[in-house]
Amino acid sequence: KKLNSSEFRQMFLDFFAEHGHMVMQSASLIPKDDPTLLWINSGVATMKKYFDGSVVPKNRRITSSQKSIRTNDIENVGKTARHQTLFEMLGNFSVGDYFKEEAIPWAWEFLTSPKWLDLDKDKLYVTVYPKDTEAHRIWHEVVGLPEDHIVQLEDNFWDIGEGPCGPDSEIFYDRGQENNDVPEDDPENFPGGENARYLEIWNIVFSEFNHLPDGSYVEQPHKNIDTGMGLERVLSILQDAPTNFETDLFLPIIHATEDLSDGKKYGVNKDDDTSFKIIADHIRAISFAIGDGALPGNNGRGYVLRRLLRRAALNGRKLGIKDAFLYKLVPVVGDIMKSHYPEVADQADFISKVIKNEEERFGATLEAGLTLLDDLIDKAKASEDKTISGQDAFKMFDTYGFPYELTVEAAEDNGLKVDKAGFDSEMEAQKERARKARGKLESMGSQDETLMEIKDDSTFDYGVYEEQGKLIDI
Ligand code: ATP
Ligand code: MG
Ligand code: MG
Ligand code: MG
Fold first, then answer.
1. Residue 442 pLDDT
2. Which of 135, 157, 340, 374 is the most buried if burial means most Cβ atoms within 10 Å?
3. Given the CA of residue 199, which atom of ligand 1 is nearest to it?
4. CA of 341 relative to ligand 3 center, distance in Å
5. With helix as H, strand as E and coil as C, how does the chain read?
6. For ligand 1, is residue 87 a contact (CB within 6 Å)?
7. In the chain, pLDDT over 90 holds for what percent of residues?
């Protein structure tokens, strides 16, 4: 079926509404009352209060399309066919209501019934946790999936340390032999392995245990279902797109970028395509994050935004775009998304202003920064240890506003390393200087980071981001 993104999203919500679910609006990307998360990174991240029993929902069956940001995938963007930083997670949830017997056959019905997605059954594979004989039985006997389409995988246990956890079952779509990125006889050549041929589209978590602080597992009195389907991934299948990016969610952004570029076209060479994808992805994440109240800054969420924005700006340079341009893409993002998420279109002017301001700040040192970066790369290539020194990486950061990760990425693209310990100690020394200077500032009262008051890079608190960043890697 050739559905567009709005039709497909609506179809998913309709399917679960027909099965008694209440349709919930997407929550903000900024977690509420949850200090453990920097960004909402899945549908279930917004449902914690229901799953831990502190709030009882009006209806124990819930469905949603949740905007999600994953910073652990930043470097995958443009390189894999399937990762974005901002994506939509379609989900159905059972808060102590139905369990495996319903969740598995419903997933199958939605994917394969001619009334719904009508995907080719032969192309679908599932993974199950080896001890979860129940899930295996349902896939095989109730759904009728042949044994050779069911893969047992030790990894299929969803557990974040303490709290509700349980086995999961993931659904993969076979994109065909031409998408193999490992040899046919490679041990990773199976659904669930590291091979782009088998695209993971849906994860169904059977949350049936409680992981106690002492490390033991007990059965939960109320068992929950939590599922997550990547909207853009399934859309790429429905629209015969080789990657998530050749779909109606991204192509208009890519085309607008072509128009802003120095005659570059998408689909001509691989490096340019990577830049187009990075820009299209990052501008969506940045626009939505700002729309939900985040602002570029020096730590936490602000730092993630700054990092995304500067990475996108750098890729604009690679396409020959000399001036601030990302802000011009905001209305395009707003238009594409407004049927379900009006927030970007509604605040397009404000979002554009924030982005333009940030682009211009970085733009002022970008050219000089890139020149230095080239020199540093040449120097490191000629060096014994093929490493950019911590001092040099810090100079890129402190003087030219290049987030550390951008220097690392450039280094890695050239087969080089960066001395992280050296960078950290430069940063520590910087922080010490800032601490000494802080007394004065504090007497002026604390200030919010607003558009006009973006702090200087030299007070950037890298440590905080590191601490928070770890919590969101899943
Ligand atoms: P992958 O192994 O491909 O990185 P995942 O196992 O990390 O995916 P889950 O945490 O299981 O993903 O999330 C549920 C679903 O959300 C995935 O099956 C996929 O369809 C989608 N998804 C996850 N991460 C991304 C991403 N970065 N971009 C787009 N879709 C994603
Ligand atoms: Mg992942
Ligand atoms: Mg996975
Ligand atoms: Mg998964």
1. 56
2. 135
3. 3
4. 26
5. CCCCHHHHHHHHHHHHHHCCCEEECCCCCCCCCCCCCCCCCCCHHHCHHHHCCCCCCCCCEEEEEEEEECHHHHHHCCCCCCCCCEEEEEEEEECCCCCHHHHHHHHHHHHHCCCCCCCCHHHEEEEECCCCHHHHHHHHHHCCCCHHHEEECCCCEECCCCEEEEEEEEEEEECCHHHCCCCCCCCCCCCCCCCCCEEEEEEEEEEEEEECCCCCEEEEEEEEEEEEEEHHHHHHHHCCCCCCCCCCCCHHHHHHHHHHCCCCCCCCCHHHHHHHHHHHHHHHHHHHHHHCCCCCCCCHHHHHHHHHHHHHHHHHHHCCCCCCCHHHHHHHHHHHHCCCCCHHHHCHHHHHHHHHHHHHHHHHHHHHHHHHHHHHHHHHHHCCCCEECHHHHHHHHHHHCCCHHHHHHHHHHCCCEECHHHHHHHHHHHHHHHHHHHHHHHHCCCCCCCHHHCCCHHHCCHHHHHHHHHHHCC
6. yes
7. 85
pLDDT digits (tens, 9 = 90+) for 117-162: 999 999 999 999 999 999 999 999 999 999 999 999 999 999 877 7
201 lines ligand 1 (CB under 6 A): yes
> How high is the pLDDT of residue 388?
98
Q: What mean pLDDT comes out for the span 20-35?
A: 94
Our answer on whether the CB atom of 284 is closer than 6 Å to any ligand 1 atom is: no
Q: What's the CA-to-centroid distance between 230 and ligand 1, angstroms?
A: 6
Region 319-323: mean pLDDT is 96
89 close to ligand 1 (CB < 6 Angstrom) = yes
CA of 159 to the centre of ligand 2 (A): 15
75 lines ligand 1 (CB under 6 A): no
Q: Which of ligand 1's atoms lies nearest the C-alpha of 80?
A: 3
- Reported ipTM: 0.99
More confident residue, 51 or 296: 296
Q: Whose CA is nearest to atom 9 of ligand 1?
A: 203
Q: Check whether 436 has a pLDDT greater than 60.
A: yes
Query: Which ligand number lies closest to the CA of residue 85?
Result: 1
- pLDDT (tens digit per residue) in 184-234: 999 999 999 999 999 999 999 999 998 889 999 999 888 999 999 999 999
Domain boundaries, the chain: 5-238, 251-472
CATH architecture of 5-238: 2-Layer Sandwich (3.30)
* Protein residue with least CA distance to atom 1, ligand 1: 200
